[in-house]
């Protein structure tokens, strides 16, 4: 989509911060000691390592990289100052704890003064460069407004006045007003959204029938479109709690909390995924994969790995890897595995029961198509079917699919013979999407390991 590079912006922020942090520290070291000889062999090198680690934690904890497209210079400065103060406090605490009183205080003063100057200059330059990039029509989000009202017009004027915020308006939809500014009627919205790949729908009217609003929200969920309400349109949307935010001077309410829409929540999850999957690949895959590969070859004819297209983040397809557990067959992309399935090999039954067949998906995780924890990905045919049969099914694709997930730890895994079974799985997945935390991921991993040791009756 037009803003597909947004996910790289905040990791780029952090990378720039870390480069400048190291430069500032090395300059300060040179100013204090007049040389850099044997730097990596003295305690200051290890202090620099702590500087980097602490800054990463501070960035994640405070979310101190400005993600608001409409942030002012003062707001950016406040976040940087908070980060520097917390970083200094953490470093001072560490030094006092280990009684490392021999480090130069003057070097620390130089380091923080230089880093503060560098990082503020870098952030401002980066944001203004990004805004200039958006002014040229890149990295934008498309939106429509339901209701030709004063609030809706004020929102449109705000975005039009600031093209650097990266929003592209595609029309008003209203049954009450008929003029040149209105693109279409309320009944036209769904077709328009599909044709133009709309990212966000803003409601600026409370005159619509609540049943229609609920149906439109359901449609938006199926198509991964965010729905937001302006302050003058507080609809009761499926009795959901609304989540307020500010767009300039305007109050806007989201109908769903999405912790992983926050850039640094995504970054912390991604860092965790990389560390965890790298550990598994180095410490387990390095010796277990060759053994499993040999056993699969001895057990039945066919490839070691099974590769299948599945639905991932934002409804996009990706190739999901598994150890092959079935005889090669033509139904693999359409038919679920069932109890006593004749296609499953003897070794395959063990691999599935123990969940070892999922281990190759750590390569998917390292690549970035999957996460260690998240809703399990479905084959394309099932996504197409259940998206029409199960309400909120597509909401689970607002986050990356996982090797394990909350639904699986609660017993909702394996074959879904009835739609009700999928509804229970989706209910757990939506809860995960709306309540994600790093602690929840760790808890799910422990629950998964416990279930693997105990054994799961639905694993076949």
Q: How many individual helices? A: 14
| Run of helices and strands | HHHHEHEEHEHEEEHEEHHEHEHHH
Q: Give the end-to-end Cα distance, rounded to a whole number of Å.
A: 38 Å
Gyration radius, rounded:
26 Å
Which descriptor suits the 3D outline? flat
The structure class reads alpha/beta
Largest sheet: 7 strands, mixed
Main sheet: strand order: 3-2-1-4-5-7-6
Strand portion, in percent? 5-15%
Q: Please bin the fraction of helical residues.
A: 40-55%
Low-pLDDT parts are 1-5
Average per-residue pLDDT, rounded, comes to: 83
Q: What is the number of E strands?
A: 11
Identify the notable features of this structure and list them briefly:
disordered N terminus; two-stranded antiparallel sheet; 460 residues; 11 strands; seven-stranded mixed sheet
Describe this structure in words.
By secondary structure, this protein is of the alpha/beta class. Helices cover 51% and strands 12% of the residues. It contains 14 helices and 11 strands. The strands form 3 sheets. Strands 3-2-1-4-5-7-6 form a 7-stranded mixed beta sheet. The protein has a two-stranded antiparallel ribbon with strand order 8-9. β10 (371-373), α11 (380-389) and β11 form a beta-alpha-beta unit. The protein is flat, with a radius of gyration of 26 Å.
Please sum up the structure shown:
The protein has helices at 9-33, 43-62, 73-97, 105-135, 150-161, 189-196, 210-222, 263-299, 346-354, 361-367, 380-389, 406-409, 419-435, 438-454, and strands spanning 141-146, 167-173, 182-184, 200-203, 226-230, 243-247, 250-254, 305-311, 317-323, 371-373, 402-404.
